[in-house]
Write a structure and sequence with these properties.
435 residues; alpha/beta; Rossmann fold; 4 domains; four-stranded parallel β-sheet; 19% strand; elongated
Length: 435
């Protein structure tokens, strides 16, 4: 999927960060480690990292003069062809840094957009990332003609650098953004149609920090073959599978794009339709990497859920990768999160024979118990002349008892309240509820 990327001509990168007074040493270091993983996801090699501790941002070059000299020296000695800045840069700062350092400069937002462009596979994901890239470029036209030139199919966008040329570029991007939004609207309508068809099902969404193991757990729970890679944002496309064939009502599991701290606004906006599957969920499975920055990852997930207005949806926490923990650390987490489930999905996958891994049964059981506790049971009588409605009853509820009596079909049904309401509305006077 390299053709979707704007910056794909670098292989070796230097990571740099500006540590302002409000950021702690550990916060900056963790963020740089994450940026290193992002570079790896793009297939790049990291030569090293430089941190400048400073009280304020240099308006023109972002970094101070002395630190820029150190960065330039490192670039030349290490044969670096890209500078990855773990901060948000302005368009003029990017242009000035590239001119001073003689190499490609990408800020954190650009790196994440590049990964999304590389990993987008479905039509919807490609449209979403194209929209995010276009909106990002619209505010950063100065110094980006070389990328826009390829986007437009070779029109000579780089010949003029005057106001007239910039306005032409803006007009091109605005038309492109309008077209992409229109196409995504159609995709969203199709998604809503699919959602309506699944309205009788219970929906569970897997959420969590990128690379926490959502796809591995999804595969184990549903016996599906989703892509699993030890890279950030390996999964961008929402996938829905059935939890169990014979469960009533049916339970659908959906994988989602991973969260990350400081997720660019452009990405959140573009992928909002995909993330809407989270908003429609009855239950969330929050997959957490037990071996990596737990508090930060939980906080990031809470921020994204708040942005999606989905904080009221119940959550079951699942701590994954417990094989990387010491027994003491695992015991401490179990005491801190007594309601959570602790698993090692990869280790279970490696040790599997013909039996289902124990953690799969544990998660499935907790999901079904969660919904069982919220279900209601009613007794109804269905007249024989309306027996064609049995198909709808079996579709929207679990039939616990059925007795064919002279006066009609007596049934005991169990379902979530919303499905019982749908049955009442759909069947109307065809059924009679019994006390």
């Amino acid at each position: 999927m390299e053709e979707n990327r704007l910056f794909n001509n670098w292989k070796r990168a230097l990571l740099v960060s500006l540590q302002l007074p409000h950021r702690s040493n550990s916060e900056v270091q963790n963020s740089l480690e994450e940026l290193s993983s992002l570079a790896y996801s793009l297939g790049g090699e990291v030569s090293g990292q430089i941190i400048q501790v400073c009280t304020q941002i240099h308006p023109a070059n972002f970094f101070g003069k002395g630190k820029l000299a150190e960065i330039k020296s490192k670039i030349q000695s290490e044969n670096v062809d890209a500078l990855l800045v773990d901060n948000q840069l302005g368009p003029k700062q990017v242009q000035n840094l590239e001119k001073l350092l003689g190499c490609e400069v990408l800020d954190r937002t650009q790196v994440i957009l590049e990964i999304f462009a590389k990993n987008a596979r479905t039509h919807e994901a490609k449209l979403q990332i194209e929209l995010a890239q276009s909106e990002y470029l619209l505010t950063r036209l100065v110094g980006l003609w070389k990328h826009l030139d390829r986007e437009r199919g070779g029109i000579s966008a780089s010949r003029g650098t005057g106001e007239k040329q910039i306005e032409k570029d803006r007009q091109f991007l605005r038309h492109r953004i309008t077209r992409l939004r229109s196409q995504l609207k159609k995709v969203e309508i199709e998604r809503k149609t699919q959602t309506k068809r699944r309205s009788n099902c219970l929906c569970v969404s897997l959420i969590g920090y990128t690379n926490a193991g959502k796809s591995t757990i999804m595969n184990a729970l549903t016996n599906s073959g989703l892509l699993v890679e030890d890279r950030l944002f390996a999964t961008l496309d929402s996938t829905t599978r059935l939890l169990e064939e014979d469960s009533r009502p049916k339970v659908l599991l959906s994988d989602t794009v991973g969260f990350i701290s400081n997720l660019p606004h452009e990405v959140v906006a573009a992928f909002r339709s995909t993330l809407s599957i989270v908003q429609e969920a009855d239950l969330l499975l929050h997959i957490i990497d037990a071996s990596d920055n737990i508090d930060e990852h939980i906080r990031t997930a809470a921020e994204v859920l708040q942005d999606l207005e989905s904080t009221c949806i119940p959550i079951i926490k699942i701590f994954n990768k417990t094989d990387r923990l010491s027994p003491t650390r695992l015991l401490m987490l179990e005491k801190m999160y007594p309601e959570a489930i602790f698993v090692s999905a990869t280790q279970s996958e490696q040790n599997i024979t013909d039996d289902t891994p124990a953690f799969v049964d544990k998660i499935r059981k907790q999901i079904l118990v969660f919904f069982e506790e919220r279900m209601k049971t009613v007794k109804i009588r269905l007249d024989y002349q309306h027996c064609q409605q049995l198909a709808n009853i079996y579709q929207w509820s679990r039939v616990d008892e059925i007795d064919y009596q002279e006066q009609g079909i007596m049934m005991t049904l169990t379902a979530i309240p919303r499905n019982l309401d749908r049955l009442r509305h759909h069947l109307g006077s065809d059924i009679k509820e019994m006390n």
